[in-house]
Amino acid sequence: MTMDAHDPSMMTMAQQAAAIRAKTLSSRDATRHALNRLAASEPKVHAFLQVFEDRAMEQAAKVDAGEVRGPLAGVPIALKDNICLNYGRTTCASRMLEQYESPYTATAAQRLIDAGAIVIGKTNLDEFAMGSSTENSAFGPTRNPWDVSRVPGGSSGGSAAAVAAGVVPMALGSDTGGSIRQPAALCNLVGVKPTYGRVSRYGLVAFASSLDQIGPLTRDVTDAALTLEVICGSDALDATSAPEDAPRLVDGLETPIAGLRIGVPTQCRSDANHGAVNASLDATLEVYRRLGATIVDVDLPLTDYGIAAYYIVAPAEASSNLARFDGVRYGHRAALGPGEGLIDLYCRSRAEGFGPEVQRRIMLGTHVLSSGYYDAYYNTALKVRRTIKGDFDRVFSAAGNGCHVVLMPSTPGPAFAVGSKTSDPLAMYLEDVYTVGINLAGLPALSMPAGMVRIDGVQLPIGMQLVAQAFDEATLLRVARMFERETGFTRARASV
Amino acid sequence: MADAPNQSSAPQLSAADVRKVAALSRLSLTDAQVEQYRHQLSSVLTYINRLRELDLAGVEPMAHVGDTHNRLDQDVVREPLANSALMKMAPQTMPPFVKVPKVIDDGGGA
Q1: What is the pLDDT of residues A396-413, one digit of tens each?
Q2: Cβ contacts of residue A343 below 8 Å, gap of 6+?
Q3: ipTM > 0.90, yes or no
Q4: Which residues from A are below 8 Å from B59, CB to CB?
Q5: Whole-prediction pTM value?
Q6: B-interface mutation test, from A196, A300, A342, most B Cβ less than 10 A away
Q7: How far B65 CA lies from chain A's nearest CA (Å)?
């Protein structure tokens, strides 16, 4: 791996954008470098489902000719392949949408394009964003650039691997229960799930509409802030998008955090965590104490019930959202035999088009919503959801713990081996124990690099998660930036 | 295949239960899939049953975090997606129609 400071794969998005503006780096060179890096790492990592080489180089030439301006002008990026573009395919890593060409572009993607970013490709994911390892892709798993025998996390594993492998400085992911934060943690990246409603969901293929949010995976905090400034803000095309304007985030990043109160849920110091995760939590708290923050023990009593509530709410919504895939209007259509009718068309198209995890979640959702089970499961989960949100509200409120942010691990452990959890869906679900509650509560959260653990002779990243009050991404990013500045953990690079 | 964890509170799904939910989900399954999903879904349902331990008396269900009320748009005509763009997505068409199997008299099932 080249360690040249002018090697774009070593530069952040902000650095690339500044160099392109200053004309010390051409967009064509940056984009060509990304495509070369992609070609070199793909055989080992398989982060991408689609590459737009010609189109990307044409766009880069336009930037270099001064025809395109914007805060991200000329910088190569990637999008998770459940985010629609009006060119190429949007597959959701599913046989169901293998040939699907979207007629429109997602608002978040359009805002990046309007800011001058160059989309070089679409990244791999767990089918329809359902999974925590990117092994549920119909087109083969993605590998972790830190150790290709391990998973990159999921479901935004392709986006995480693309950034960690140095192909692009930023890729968009989507987070329904941890799908940005968990892969960020496993790949030593910053990953942000914005407040529900912050980023338009228009053009994001729906999984669980009350939980889904688009967000960035980046190498450092500044790039996350830069991306959010571009993609946040209300959108007439998404009725659930919040009316708040896009926040100013980059300017406040270097503001010291002395006096801030950081809550640490007692439930997160668990024997079920890998020892290195608990050690990293303690070390992280020590850094924050040194920075002048006050650490407060807080109680989130339903931490161990979040997964149970989530695996009712998310599949319930998924079973409804995915009902649209019927073999008639779009997607895979089964070839019928003699005497087979419309119901056969539905059942066989769906059986052939959806992989096992998607089928499991559709059935689980259908079951918990079905007559006789609705109250016992779905309605109960919605009560738990309100309780979880209330617990967070109490931690943040002046009358409660008065915390500015909550800190906890992003995941119970570092990246696990490919294949080690695929036969046991429940074991895979528990990977998200610290992330799902935040989606249920609609809060903004961020995973940040928090050190390494050496396992079998390989360095593996550990991630810590920060949670803030709704619409307070500014504090979230600032608290993360102060940790980054103090530790330098975000500078470590995978050597794939 | 090994049995799923046999805990006393386990809502063990029968093969018939799985076939019923598969039919509601519009998924055709092989016998082997029914057996595999029976174990996997039972294991997940056993796990989520832990919610029964909680006292949720008096808690209102919350389906959505936003203050959800209907948002009214200005009543102005906008350029919609072209019909041709939508028709292009359909796997089988007989322009200007999307093609489906015969549903009247036979072949429609339900």
Answers
A1: 999 999 999 999 999 999
A2: B26, B108, B109, B110
A3: yes
A4: 383, 386-387
A5: 0.96
A6: A342
A7: 6
